[in-house]
């Protein structure tokens, strides 16, 4: 098995491209059938292990791509909410963009898990009327629990990806991405290596977790009733359970070039500019008002002094006083 993920960055990157090309002659992706409808409190480890056993079992290096919805259901993340919009508001940490349309308003927000997604990931599909489904509280922790349980139950050294469907900037349509991961190298960092022409790679980081999530969705589908897929042939990407999870691939705010929607960014600039201009104008006005008031006060004082002096009687000459 390749050690590309465990070595120093320069040595790792030099071999990474070759590793990706020679790792497996083929990659297979298959859906697991037979899980049935998931309810709060269900043991997903047991249900997935049974379904996998009926389909030939799990093997070292397999990666299970699990739809986050069934994890949310098993963890009881179903909440009563006649108004889905209120549930979205409750899960929102920061509004990125909003757009009104015939069906209502689409809100792109940062949610409690740190993800930027439409509707904060709140899902009203395939849930009873009057309820909505929230994302797992900690998707990485949920993935670790599944991976640990399946490793113990089956004896196979497997990894787990929790997937959810997201839209993407600049592109139409949606695709599945990883929102939780355990026992899987989520990124293949090729920086420092060279391409086929010998040029140094400076930014290339393949997001394996998202690639695996998308591959799993090709066989799971949205309405097929198969919420778990098994990817085989990428054993090199499977590792210990304490590897960084999917939270590590959320871009930090200081490197996020698209932190706001266009309209929101313009409005923020306008508001900040107005506030700065108002503050500047107030400071200048106060300074000018003080100067003007001071000048008027000095002039008024002088006038009052002259008027007071004119009201005082002039002194009587001494010679006139002695002749009376």
Automatic annotation (TrEMBL):
This is Coenzyme F420:L-glutamate ligase-like domain-containing protein. Residues 36-233 form the Coenzyme F420:L-glutamate ligase-like domain. It comes from the Bacteria. NCBIfam families: F420_cofE (TIGR01916), PRK13294.1 (NF009810). SUPFAM superfamilies: CofE-like. Transmembrane segments: none annotated. Pfam families: F420_ligase. Keywords: GTP-binding, Ligase, Magnesium, Manganese, Metal-binding, Nucleotide-binding, Potassium.
């Amino acid at each position: 098995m390749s050690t590309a993920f465990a070595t120093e960055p320069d040595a790792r990157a030099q071999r990474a491209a070759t590793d990706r090309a020679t790792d497996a002659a083929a990659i297979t992706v298959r859906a697991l059938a037979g899980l049935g409808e998931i309810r709060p409190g269900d043991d997903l480890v047991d249900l997935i292990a049974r379904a996998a056993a009926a389909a030939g079992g799990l093997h070292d290096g397999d990666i299970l791509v699990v739809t986050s919805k069934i994890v949310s259901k098993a963890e009881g993340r179903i909440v009563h909410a006649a108004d889905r919009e209120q549930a979205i508001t409750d899960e929102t940490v920061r509004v990125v963009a909003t757009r009104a349309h015939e069906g209502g308003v689409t809100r792109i927000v940062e949610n409690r898990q740190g993800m930027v997604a439409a509707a904060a990931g709140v899902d009203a599909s395939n849930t009873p009327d009057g309820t909505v489904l929230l994302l797992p509280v900690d998707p990485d922790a949920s993935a670790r629990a599944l991976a640990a349980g399946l490793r113990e139950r089956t004896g196979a050294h497997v990894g787990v990806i929790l997937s959810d469907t997201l839209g993407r900037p600049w592109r139409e349509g949606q695709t599945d991405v990883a929102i939780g991961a355990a026992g899987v190298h989520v990124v293949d960092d090729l920086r420092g290596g060279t391409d086929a022409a010998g040029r140094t790679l400076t930014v290339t980081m393949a997001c394996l977790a998202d690639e695996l999530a998308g591959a799993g969705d090709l066989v799971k589908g949205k309405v097929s009733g198969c919420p778990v897929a098994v990817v085989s042939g990428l054993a090199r990407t499977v590792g210990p359970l304490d590897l960084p999870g999917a939270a590590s691939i959320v871009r930090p705010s200081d490197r996020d070039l698209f932190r706001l929607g266009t309209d929101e960014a313009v409005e923020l600039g306008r508001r900040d500019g107005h506030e700065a201009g108002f503050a500047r104008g107030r400071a200048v006005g106060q300074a000018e008002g003080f100067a003007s008031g001071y000048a008027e006060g000095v002039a008024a004082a002088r006038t009052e002094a002259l008027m007071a002096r004119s009201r005082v009687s002039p002194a009587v000459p001494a010679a006139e006083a002695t002749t009376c």
